[in-house]
Specification:
The chain has one domain: HAD superfamily/HAD-like (Rossmann fold). The protein is built from seven helices and eight strands. By secondary structure, the chain is of the alpha/beta class. The strands form two sheets. It has a six-stranded parallel beta sheet with strand order 5-4-1-6-7-8, sandwiched between helices. It has a two-stranded antiparallel ribbon with strand order 2-3. Helix 1 packs parallel to helix 6. Its cofactor is Mg(2+). Keywords: Hydrolase, Magnesium, Metal-binding. It comes from Epilithonimonas hominis. This is HAD family hydrolase.
Length: 172
Amino acid sequence: MLPKLIITDIDGVWTDGSMYYDQTENEWKRFNTYDSAGVLFAKLLNIPVAIVTGEDTKIVGRRAKKLNVEYLFQGIKNKVEIVESICTELNISLQDCAFIGDDINDLSLLQKVGFSASPKNAPEYIQSKVNLVTNKKGGEGAFREFVEHILMENNLLEDIIEKAVAGHGKTS
């Protein structure tokens, strides 16, 4: 199944799930640049990417802006409701979507989309409910692996990598 929308959580998927604070109450997150290639690959196929996360931080907004992510929703408690609104806008169903999440706040959406995944370090209960458990942990390129898996299943990975190498996109 080639999704018409790729959805991702952030904490525990693009990050290792840790939250770092300095003594002046600044929050830090460590992103892996491998995941930006997942966004690029989706863009090369004209598949929009949606970040839907329970946290609300400027850091995630900056990362999404840098990568030109089409949809960013932060501070979300009901992820299904938000994704249903995106689906309505795109005239697609939840079954046309792929989602990677890592914890219980992702579970209802993981169970409703057409293809679901979690990182290797997600709780076992979550892993037992998804179609794919990545070999990578959150913060180590799990989102990219998720997108690459979708492309491999659709015999598109080599073509997309060739386009990326030919300069049709930039990761960072």
